[in-house]
Amino acid sequence: MRKKGGFTFVELMVAVVLIGILATLAIPNYARSLERSKCSQAIQILKEMRSAGLSFYSNNETFPTPGQESDLEDEAGANFYSDGSNDDWAFAIQTGNDTTLVVRATRKRGPHAAAGNTTITITDNPAANQNEDWGGTYPWLDPATW
Question: Which of 33, 55, 88, 103 could be stapled to 49 by a disulfide with Cβ–Cβ 3.0 to 4.6 Å?
Fold first, then answer.
């Protein structure tokens, strides 16, 4: 009698179960790291918007107001997606006046958008010596939670 080589059904099922366990551990970590990278992108763009807003203020003696996002893009020579072309975030000037600038990123889609946890804001009030005050409802805003 000759023995055939190969795997038994039980051995194959054990391998499938192990792969399933590894996948259930890896997929949430991948999704979390992907969401953190998108948050980092939004924070970087908001910092650039803030910097452009301060430059706009130094040139015009007032902060830009809602609707002037394209003016900020021209000021900084950067793309803040004021045309809405970013699939993940919408960037806008929330308020602007003689003393305060508030820029906001709003998550368009994703797991936190459905829960209403969608915004990251930077408030800047140089007249009151309040620089870069972060706020919002987005859960990944605090790097301590990463």
Answer: 103
Is the model more confident about 89 or about 143?
Answer: 89
Torsion sign, CA atoms 121, 126, 132, 137: negative
The answer for residues whose C-beta is within 8 angstroms of residue 87's C-beta and 6 or more apart is 108, 109
The pTM of the whole model exceeds 0.90: no
8 Cβ neighbours under 8 A, 6+ residues apart: none
**CATH code of the domain made up of 11-141:** 3.30.700
- Residue 146 is predicted with a pLDDT of 47
User: What percent of the chain shows pLDDT beyond 70?
Assistant: 84
Helix (H, G, I), strand (E, B) or coil at 130: strand
Sequence ranges of the domains in the chain: 11-141
Nearest Cα neighbor of 88 from 118, 73, 106, 108 is 108
